[in-house]
């Protein structure tokens, strides 16, 4: 394997993982960022992102001399020795959704303006961020240089397992209209031995959306199936286990929940709808996937209403509810597009009084890593936070389990029951054993579960 000289622009979640992991594969990596304080922290081995194994990898690779951090793109480019300029430049800059659902490519543009003219002939520019179809083409136009190859190399990292996903990928996708550039990028990953899809730029760009939208569709399907299970007296856990043995379906990503959220699935489903609209294609399946997800939040509220009042139209006014878990999934402090917060907003609109608890927002040593020593906030988007689950449950008429933190499973549910005003647990992730809840004198309401009937 040839070690390559790589420059990574942007040290966010994707850029830092890419830089540290490529260095661990033996490449010489310089990461550029415009944030001076952040670069200084990274040089000291301080990583702001909570990702298992990332800060260790950054420290290890920095000490090994394969990874360094520089303020500014031009300075990063200049940091390579004379005649040894970077062979590959990864763009890992934000591409937020701009007006009309079109991704804002100003960050890509400004990087190209700044360093485009200074890149050595034969350099390959790689788009790593999730970008709309056509970005590689636009990047090539911005560059106005036929001697630079532009490649799309989407990442498929999950929050909470980014390093593992990067170093053990299901596949590598490399798309370019320049075959040689694509092969050079694919070679960077050769040591991983992963199946590699070499394709054109538009297909690679579309593939990222296609994957995330398929995953979203799988979850909307499971959530709808859980609802059907409730109506026909079937059990979603058995149904998903049974269908999951079919290798064409697979066991993963089949857990029902309060709806999918986070910074990727919601953004990408909407973006692909825009792509379809712009191409004059009515993507009904994708629209139904999104609508099912929006409806799922209301469905949880309806379940709570029925469980607490005994009526479909009962009032939740002044009903105290305890929310366990506010992040978009367990193992993160990320609240972006969190279904838990969407449900909290609906419950508040219905007049309920909420108290939350989330293991990411307490002062314990485990949670502190999320905030670099900062004290825990006292509220999250209008939901006051308690220091522990039992305090949050004090006087509650129901406890809602909204994220799948493992510690909710092992809570002392008799102590929880003693603290509550009424013994109802609505487990939107089906994570707590219903028999344990029942032994504690609690009524368990899950999603699509036979044990609840
Ligand atoms: C997702 C994809 O899984 C990654 O492959 C992709 O690279 C990433 O988006 C991205 O585009 O950057 P992530 O947003 O970190 O990763 O989260 P997931 O673990 O996929 O979870 C997404 C949502 O689905 C969460 O709200 C989660 O709670 C929910 N979910 C997941 C379920 O409700 N049930 C499941 O069985 C799995």
TrEMBL record:
The keyword Iron does not apply. It is an enzyme of class 1 (oxidoreductase). Keywords: NAD, Oxidoreductase. Signal peptide: none annotated. Residues 322-434 form the UDP-glucose/GDP-mannose dehydrogenase C-terminal domain. PANTHER family: UDP-GLUCOSE 6-DEHYDROGENASE TUAD. Belongs to the UDP-glucose/GDP-mannose dehydrogenase family. This is UDP-glucose 6-dehydrogenase.
């Amino acid at each position: 394997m040839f070690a390559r000289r790589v420059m990574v622009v942007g040290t966010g979640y994707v850029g830092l993982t890419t830089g540290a992991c490529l260095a661990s594969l033996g490449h010489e990596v310089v990461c550029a960022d415009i944030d001076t304080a952040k670069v200084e922290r990274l040089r000291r081995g301080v990583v702001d992102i909570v990702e298992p194994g990332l800060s260790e990898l950054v420290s290890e690779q920095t000490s090994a001399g394969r990874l360094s951090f520089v303020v500014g793109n031009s300075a990063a480019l200049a940091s390579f020795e004379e005649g040894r300029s970077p062979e590959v430049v990864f763009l890992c800059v934000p591409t937020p959704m701009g007006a009309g659902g079109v991704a804002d490519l100003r960050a890509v543009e400004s990087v190209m303006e700044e360093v485009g003219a200074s890149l050595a002939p034969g350099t390959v520019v790689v788009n790593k961020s999730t970008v709309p179809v056509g970005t590689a083409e636009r990047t090539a136009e911005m560059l106005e240089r036929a001697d630079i190859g532009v490649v799309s190399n989407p990442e498929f990292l999950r929050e909470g397992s980014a390093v593992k996903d990067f170093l053990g990928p299901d596949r590598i996708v490399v798309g370019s209209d320049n075959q040689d550039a694509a092969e050079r990028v694919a070679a960077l990953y050769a040591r991983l031995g992963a199946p590699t899809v070499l394709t054109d730029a538009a297909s690679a760009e579309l593939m990222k959306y296609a994957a995330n939208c398929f995953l979203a569709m799988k979850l909307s399907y499971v959530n709808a199936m859980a609802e059907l299970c409730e109506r026909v007296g079937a059990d979603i856990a058995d149904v998903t286990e049974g269908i999951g043995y079919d290798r064409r379906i697979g066991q993963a990503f089949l857990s029902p929940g309060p709806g999918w959220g986070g910074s990727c699935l919601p953004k990408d489903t909407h973006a692909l709808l825009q792509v379809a609209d712009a191409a004059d294609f009515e993507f009904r399946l994708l629209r139904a996937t999104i609508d099912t997800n929006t409806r799922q939040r209301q469905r949880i509220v309806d379940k709570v209403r029925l469980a607490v009042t005994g009526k479909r139209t009962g009032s939740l006014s002044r009903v105290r509810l305890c929310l366990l878990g506010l992040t978009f999934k367990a193992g993160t402090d990320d609240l972006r597009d969190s279904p838990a917060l969407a449900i909290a907003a609906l419950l508040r609109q219905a007049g309920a009084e909420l108290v939350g608890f989330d293991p990411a927002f307490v002062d314990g040593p485990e949670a502190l890593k999320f905030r670099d020593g900062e004290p825990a906030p006292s509220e999250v988007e209008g939901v006051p936070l308690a220091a522990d689950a039992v305090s949050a449950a004090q006087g509650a008429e129901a406890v809602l389990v909204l994220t799948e933190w493992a510690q909710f499973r092992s809570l002392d549910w008799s102590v929880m029951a003693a603290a509550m005003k009424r013994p109802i647990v609505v487990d939107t992730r089906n994570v707590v054993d219903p028999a344990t809840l029942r032994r504690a004198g609690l009524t368990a309401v899950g999603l699509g579960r036979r044990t609840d009937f």
